[in-house]
């Protein structure tokens, strides 16, 4: 029998303080023994977005309590852990530093390996708790800070084939919800309001729909909604605009994902499409992806709903894979606000981007 491995994961890159402990027995997908998340929704709600200083202070207040909860829930003792992994980027430096420095202290005190994890790689591997997924696969990463198509060739090996040239998809949901006064975080609010709305009422722009390969753009949508804002008077108007916004997103995602699949298939035989990140919790997006995968002969895989938005289990699973490769980090490792999965990919944001 293989020896079991116990990994702690710590996540504080944005507005969730999270600690998880996972166990690997060799063959089956690893088991989540504890996955404790403390959301700061209440802290940031009145600002309609994350305030870094407040987020950092909240992480500082919570990190020890959440760690203790995770240990209690998992019935694991600190001394039995094999390694401490923590998000080291990308994200807000003030927030990342709290979790990563906490991980460093634990690793030093316990004399256990420290493993720096890229938050985006956590999202990329998050469905691996449900099933074994072999590399390579196509990944659509849709979160609050990132929107990219990547070919995942292996652990730490990514080729970006498409990206947003302005706002991330989650950001577009959040900004639209803020403009409509629906609350924060915006994604789930838009999804709910859209349930009672007419998706064909408003004709919204689809920037770079017919150019730029599988690159995406969402900033024009926000501008269009800003212009319409004064005409939105009733709750029904809000539902209709939320539904029209979501419908536009679905059309963009469908078109761009088909392009990404064609690009991916040029050099890859495997037919797996993983869709991960906070926005992958959206049911209509899941439905659209399911349908287009059927047309394109691809197998869609989504993380469990509770593993779509930020959590520490996804950090621990990257920690586990790195642990098996003895890919440990030095205590001098610094957090990285920018940490692209594909370091060779061209910077594609702002004015002057050539598609
Ligand atoms: O992955 P995540 O938790 O954090 C980042 O790494 O950014 O993603 C958060 C984003 C937010 O923008 C949130 O509005 C969006 O995911 N989101 C959703 C849904 N649930 C969360 N967007 C659309 N529909 C949802 N159901
Ligand atoms: Zn995330």
Biggest sheet layout: 5 strands, mixed
Q: What's the N-to-C terminus distance?
A: 53 Å
The chain-level structural class is alpha/beta
Order of helix and strand elements from N to C terminus = EEEHHEHEHEEEHHHHEHEH
Calculate the mean pLDDT score and round it.
95
| Rg, alpha carbons | 20 Å
Shape estimate = globular
Helical region count? 10
Query: Poorly predicted ranges (pLDDT <50, ≥5 residues)?
Result: none
- Helix amount: 25-40%
* Total strand segments: 10
Are any ligands bound, and if so which? 5'-O-[(R)-(carboxyoxy)(hydroxy)phosphoryl]adenosine, zinc ion
What is the beta-strand fraction?
15-25%
Strand order of the largest sheet: 3-2-1-4-5
Brief synopsis:
With 355 residues, the chain is an alpha/beta fold. It has helices spanning 41-44, 52-74, 93-110, 119-125, 169-179, 186-194, 219-228, 235-265, 283-296, 313-324; strands spanning 5-11, 16-24, 31-39, 83-89, 114-118, 137-142, 147-154, 157-163, 272-276, 299-301.
Description:
The chain is built from ten helices and ten strands. It is an alpha/beta fold and 355 residues long. Strands 3-2-1-4-5 form a five-stranded mixed beta sheet, sandwiched between helices. Strands 8-7-6-9-10 form a five-stranded mixed beta sheet, sandwiched between helices. The longest helix has 31 residues, at 235-265. The chain is globular, with a radius of gyration of 20 Å. 5'-O-[(R)-(carboxyoxy)(hydroxy)phosphoryl]adenosine is lined by residues 14, 143-145, 170, 173-174, 185-188, 191, 277-279, 281-282, 309-310.
């Amino acid at each position: 029998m293989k020896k079991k491995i116990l990994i702690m994961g710590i996540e504080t890159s944005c507005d969730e303080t999270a600690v998880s402990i996972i166990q690997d027995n060799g063959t089956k997908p690893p088991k989540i023994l504890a996955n404790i998340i403390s959301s700061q929704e209440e802290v940031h709600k009145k600002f309609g977005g994350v305030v870094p200083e407040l987020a950092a202070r909240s992480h500082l207040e919570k990190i020890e309590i959440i760690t203790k909860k995770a240990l209690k829930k998992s019935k694991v003792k600190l001394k039995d852990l094999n390694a401490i992994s923590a998000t080291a980027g990308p994200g807000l430096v003030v927030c990342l530093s709290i979790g990563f420095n906490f991980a460093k202290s634990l690793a030093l005190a316990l004399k256990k390996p420290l493993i720096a994890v890229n938050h985006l790689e956590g999202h990329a591997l998050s469905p691996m708790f449900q099933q074994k997924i072999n590399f390579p696969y196509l990944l659509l990463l849709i979160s609050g800070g990132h929107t990219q198509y990547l070919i995942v060739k292996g652990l730490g090996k990514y080729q970006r084939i498409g990206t947003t040239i302005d706002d991330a998809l989650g950001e577009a949901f959040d900004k639209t919800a803020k403009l409509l006064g629906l609350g924060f975080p915006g994604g789930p609010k838009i999804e709910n309001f859209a349930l009672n709305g007419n998706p064909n009422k408003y004709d919204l722009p689809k920037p770079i729909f017919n150019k730029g390969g599988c690159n995406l753009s969402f900033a024009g949508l926000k501008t269009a909604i800003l212009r319409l804002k004064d005409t939105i008077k009733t709750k029904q108007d809000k539902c209709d605009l939320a539904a029209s916004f979501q419908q536009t997103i679905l059309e963009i995602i469908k078109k761009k994902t088909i392009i990404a699949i064609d690009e991916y298939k040029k050099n890859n035989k495997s037919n797996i499409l993983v869709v991960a990140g906070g926005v992958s919790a959206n049911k209509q997006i899941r439905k659209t992806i399911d349908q287009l995968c059927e047309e394109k002969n691809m197998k869609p895989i989504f993380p469990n709903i509770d593993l779509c938005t930020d959590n520490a289990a996804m950090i621990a699973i990257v920690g586990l894979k790195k642990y098996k490769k003895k890919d440990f980090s030095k205590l001098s490792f610094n957090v990285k606000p920018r940490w692209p999965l594909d370091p060779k990919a061209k910077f594609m944001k702002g004015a002057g981007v050539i598609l």
